[in-house]
């Protein structure tokens, strides 16, 4: 049983209400599909719990939810807060837009809020503009110091590392800096996933597929989508993602859309056409949502395979016992 977020490693907290799962201050559960998430209070990500820890905890969450008279709900999703402070989110049979709004809107809204708080610069007025112009005329040393500080901040940001790409031998890795982000692209590929990630790093350019591509893409999307998104952006992203039955189909289509623009660059900043950073905000948010769904689905498939193997082993033991 984990106690820290799988995405940001923050402490998930604890509760004394759900005896079978005393982790987390906000739990989301789906009784029909047998899923239980711990929602991180820091990054708002949903952490899917292990299969063997779910069932009794889900039943207890269902009982607690039904016994609470004060709750808000729609046709498919409900939420309540217990007296002890634990928040329960009940998933019925949600429509994709409704589920996505509950799951992703707080995450993207928090990112946008963080950007606003870290950039408190207000809209320039005529007085501030006049002061800046006069400082360059009458106080050039002060203006140069201010300009040097701004350039240092930009330089520091450009050297910030957002991901690491493993080397072909697997004995090391190459750093992906901020100035490499405009070169990252999703491309179509004839593999089991239907797509690959092309990313630039300190040592050149690498194409990744499978789990390594998912891990690197997840880190890059956090940086690229750092400004989050509005409700309108999320609605457009959900609509874009809702055209496809599975997240893999969406990735396949996004990769094909980049193929015809491969190698082309914009003339004004020399950035790649079709790069992740140059896509519309709704498309970038849809890709991040699809990545979460894809990783989660593969985790569920792995659990089901392990459960099937355990059942087959138990069946063999039962068959031997029958013949003794």
The description of the largest β-sheet is: 6 strands, mixed
The percent range for strand residues is 15-25%
Form type: globular
Pairing-aware structural class of the strands and helices?
alpha+beta
Q: What is the succession of H and E elements? A: EEEHEEEHHHEEEEEHHHH
| Number of distinct helices | 8
Describe this structure in words.
- With 324 residues, this protein is of the alpha+beta class.
- Among the domains are: 69 residues, no CATH class; 142 residues, no CATH class.
- The strands form three sheets. Strands 3-2-1-6-5-4 form a six-stranded mixed β-sheet, sandwiched between helices.
- Helix 2 crosses helix 6, helix 5 runs antiparallel to helix 8 and helix 7 packs across helix 8.
- The longest helix is centred in the C-terminal third of the chain and has 42 residues.
- The protein is globular.
- About 2% of the residues have low confidence.
């Amino acid at each position: 049983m984990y106690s820290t977020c799988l995405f940001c490693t923050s402490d998930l907290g604890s509760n004394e209400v759900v005896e079978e799962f005393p982790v987390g201050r906000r739990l989301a559960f789906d009784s029909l599909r047998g899923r239980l998430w711990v929602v991180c209070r820091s990054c708002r990500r949903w952490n899917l719990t292990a299969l063997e820890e779910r069932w009794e905890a889900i039943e207890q969450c269902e009982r607690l939810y039904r016994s609470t008279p004060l709750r808000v709900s729609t046709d498919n999703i409900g939420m309540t807060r217990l007296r002890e402070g634990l928040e329960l989110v009940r998933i019925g049979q949600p429509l994709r837009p409704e589920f996505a709004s509950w799951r992703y809107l707080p995450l993207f809204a928090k990112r946008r809020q963080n950007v606003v708080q870290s950039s408190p610069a207000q809209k320039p007025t005529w007085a501030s503009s006049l002061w800046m112009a006069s400082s360059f005329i009458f106080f050039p040393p002060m203006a140069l110091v201010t300009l040097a500080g701004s350039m240092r901040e930009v330089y520091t940001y450009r050297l910030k590392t957002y991901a690491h790409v493993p080397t072909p031998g697997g004995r090391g890795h190459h750093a992906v800096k901020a100035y490499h982000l405009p070169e990252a692209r999703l491309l179509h590929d004839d593999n089991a996933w239907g797509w690959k990630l092309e990313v630039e790093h300190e040592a050149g350019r690498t194409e990744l597929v499978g789990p390594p591509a998912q891990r690197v893409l997840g880190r890059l999307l956090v940086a690229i989508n750092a400004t989050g998104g509005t409700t309108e952006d999320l609605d457009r992203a959900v609509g874009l993602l809702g055209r496809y039955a599975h997240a893999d189909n969406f990735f396949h289509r996004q990769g094909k859309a980049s193929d015809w623009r491969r190698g082309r660059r914009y003339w004004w900043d020399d950035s790649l056409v079709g790069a992740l950073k140059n896509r519309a905000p709704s498309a970038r948010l849809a890709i991040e949502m699809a990545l979460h769904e894809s990783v989660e689905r593969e985790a569920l498939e792995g659990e089901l395979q392990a459960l099937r193997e355990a059942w087959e082993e138990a069946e063999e033991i039962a068959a031997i016992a029958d013949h003794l």
